[in-house]
Write a structure and sequence with these properties.
single chain; alpha/beta; Rossmann fold; GMP Synthetase, Chain A, domain 3; 5-stranded parallel β-sheet; 20 strands
C-alpha cells in the first residue's frame, strides 16, 4: 500500500531481536520505513522499493561463516546513504574489503562506553558533549581491519572500530545498538542519519490517512467488503477508515464467539450501529466456536481453530451480500510475530488469528489498511479519524479473546469465572485512575485448582493471575508496578465476589522473555 511519493527507508533484517526498534525510532521521526529480511532483498527489489537510505540490522550470525547472510552487492553501488549496525557493520566491512574475526578477547555484551577520537563526524552531532557515550554492545565477532575509504571515529575497550565511516560515500557503521534504550543518545544518531540522507519527515498520520483511503478505493473498486469488527482499537480504526473510503460498500461483521468480556457485545454494537450508522451484522456464533474448542488445550491449535472459524463465519455472511474482500485490523507487530521467512532470520513467536491462523485458500481477498502501522500509530490514526477517546484509548484485546487467557482446556464455567474476575480487575484499575497509565491489563484463569479456606470451610477452586504491562508499541513491555495495597484490595474483591476463585497472583514477567498474553 506504500505510496512511493513519500521518502522511504529500507531496513534489511539480518535476524536481530531488536530490529523492530529501529523502525520505531524512525517512525517517531516521521520517516516511513519497512523491514525486509535479507533473503528477500535483491537488486530487483531495491530498484522497485527505491529507498532513499538503507540500514543494515544486527543479527546472530557470523560473517566468517561461508553461508552467513549478506547484503546484495548492488546496494553499495546505488549512491545512497547506508548505516550498518553490529552485524550490519561487519557485513559492510567484510563485503567492502575489510576483515572480521572471531574471538581474541574482543567480544562485548552489555553496557559499554565509546570514546571519540579527534575526527568529527556529521552523524555524531550532539554526541560526546559530556565525554564518553554509553552504548549497548552485543557482539562476539569484531572488525579487525576496516575497509578502504573508512576512518575510525569512536572506540570502546573491546571494539577498536566502534564507529567507522566513509563520508565520501555516506557509508556509516557502528558496532553497538543505537535503537535500544540502553544507548540513551541512540535516537540522536538516527536523527542525524536521516537528516544527512535528506529525509523531510513527511510521513504523518494525516498523510497515511489520505494514502490509505486512496489505496482502499483503488483496491476495492465498486465491490462489497466485509470487515471483521471486534471492538478493539485495531478493528475499530480499520472499520472507520474503510467506511470513510467506501461508505455503504462496507458491512461490518461483529462475531460473538463466546470469548468476549462482560458487556462487550452490547457496547460494540451500540457504538458502530447507532453512532456511526454503519451496516453491521451481529453474528451470534457462540455455540459454533465453543463446541469446536471443546477439549483443546494447545495454544497454537486453539488460535488456528479460531482463525479458521472466523473465516467460515465471514464467508457465511459475505455470500448473501456478494462481498469479494475481507478487511481486518492486522498490525505490523502481528505480521512480524507471525511470519517466519523461509530461510530467513525470523522465527514464529505465535500465530495471530488474522495472520498465521488464516487458511491458505479463502474465497475473499484481504484488505489490511493498518498492516504497516504499530499500535501507537493506530491510536494516532484513530484520533485523526475522530474516534471517541474511550475507544482510541482502549487496552488491546486479542481476536481470539478469552481463549488465550484461559490456558488449557476452555469450558463455559471457566469463561464465566474469568469474565467476572476481569471486570472487577478493570473496575479497580479505573477506580484508582490507572487505566491510561497501563498499556494492557487482564486476568488469566490458570489450569489448576488450589486449596483454600473460606468461612472455616475447605475450598478447592481456580487460581487466577493478574497481568498489567506498560509499553509503547507492544513489541517490548514491562509489568506495571502496582502498590501492595492495590493488589491486596483487588485480590480480596475477586475472591469475595467471584465464586470459583480462591487464589490471586500477579504476573511480573516482562516482554521479552515472556509475551504480553499468556498464550
Amino acid at each position: 500500500m506504500t505510496d512511493i511519493s513519500h521518502d522511504r527507508l529500507l531496513i534489511i533484517d539480518f535476524g536481530s531481536q531488536v530490529t523492530q526498534l529501529i523502525a520505531r525510532r524512525l517512525r517517531e521521526l516521521n520517516v516511513y520505513c519497512e523491514i525486509h529480511p535479507f533473503n528477500n532483498v535483491d537488486f530487483a527489489f531495491l530498484e522497485n522499493f527505491n529507498p532513499k537510505a538503507v540500514i543494515l540490522s544486527g543479527g546472530p550470525s557470523s560473517v566468517t561463516e561461508v553461508d552467513s547472510p549478506r547484503a546484495p552487492k548492488e546496494l553499495f553501488e546505488m549512491g545512497i546513504p547506508l548505516l550498518g549496525i553490529c552485524y550490519g557493520q561487519q557485513v559492510m566491512m567484510h563485503q567492502l574489503g575489510g576483515k572480521v574475526e572471531t574471538g581474541h578477547g574482543t567480544a562485548e555484551f552489555g553496557r559499554a562506553f565509546v570514546t571519540p577520537n579527534t575526527n568529527s563526524l556529521n552523524i555524531l552531532e550532539g554526541w560526546f558533549e559530556s565525554g564518553d557515550e554509553q552504548v549497548w554492545m552485543s557482539h562476539g565477532d569484531h572488525v579487525s581491519e576496516i575497509a578502504g575509504g573508512f576512518k575510525v571515529y569512536g572506540t570502546s575497550p573491546n571494539a577498536p572500530f566502534a564507529i567507522t565511516a566513509d563520508t565520501k560515500r555516506n557509508f556509516y557503521a557502528v558496532q553497538f545498538h543505537p535503537e535500544v534504550h540502553h544507548t540513551p543518545n541512540g535516537s540522536k544518531l538516527y536523527e542525524n542519519f536521516i537528516k544527512l540522507a535528506g529525509f523531510t519527515g513527511d510521513w504523518t498520520m494525516n498523510a497515511y490517512r489520505e494514502q490509505a483511503i486512496a489505496s482502499i478505493k483503488e483496491t476495492v473498486g465498486d465491490q462489497q467488503v466485509i470487515c471483521g469488527l471486534s471492538g478493539g482499537v485495531d478493528s475499530s480504526v480499520a472499520a472507520v477508515l474503510l467506511h470513510e473510503a467506501i461508505g455503504d460498500q462496507l458491512t461490518c461483521v461483529f462475531v460473538d464467539h463466546g470469548l468476549l468480556r462482560m458487556g462487550e457485545a452490547e457496547e460494540v454494537v451500540s457504538m458502530f450501529r447507532d453512532h456511526y450508522n454503519m451496516k453491521l451484522i451481529h453474528a451470534d456464533e457462540r455455540d459454533l466456536f465453543l463446541s469446536q474448542l471443546d477439549g483443546q488445550s494447545d495454544p497454537e491449535t486453539k488460535r488456528k481453530i479460531i482463525g479458521k472459524l472466523f473465516i467460515d463465519v465471514f464467508d457465511k455472511y459475505a455470500k448473501p451480500i456478494g462481498a469479494k474482500f475481507l478487511a481486518q485490523g492486522t498490525l505490523y507487530p502481528d505480521v512480524i510475530e507471525s511470519v517466519s521467512f523461509s530461510g530467513g532470520p525470523s522465527v514464529t513467536i505465535k500465530s495471530h488469528h488474522n495472520v498465521g491462523g488464516l487458511p491458505e485458500k479463502m474465497d475473499m481477498a484481504l484488505v489490511e489498511p493498518l498492516r504497516e502501522l504499530f499500535k501507537d500509530e493506530v491510536r494516532a490514526l484513530g484520533q485523526e479519524l475522530g474516534l471517541p477517546a474511550k475507544f482510541v484509548g482502549r487496552h488491546p484485546f486479542p481476536g481470539p479473546g478469552l481463549a488465550i487467557r484461559c490456558p488449557g482446556e476452555i469450558t463455559r464455567e471457566k469463561l464465566e469465572i474469568l469474565r467476572k474476575a476481569d471486570a472487577i480487575y478493570i473496575d479497580q484499575i479505573r477506580k484508582h485512575n490507572l487505566y491510561d497509565e497501563i498499556w494492557q491489563a487482564f486476568v488469566a484463569i490458570l489450569p489448576v485448582r488450589t486449596v483454600g479456606v473460606m468461612g472455616d470451610g475447605r475450598t478447592y477452586d481456580f487460581a487466577c493471575a493478574l497481568r498489567a504491562v506498560t509499553s509503547v508499541d507492544g513489541m517490548t513491555a514491562d509489568y506495571y508496578p502496582f502498590s501492595h495495597e492495590f493488589l491486596g484490595e483487588t485480590a480480596t474483591r475477586i475472591i469475595n465476589e467471584v465464586e470459583g476463585i480462591n487464589r490471586v497472583t500477579y504476573d511480573i514477567t516482562s516482554k521479552p522473555p515472556g509475551t504480553i498474553e499468556w498464550e
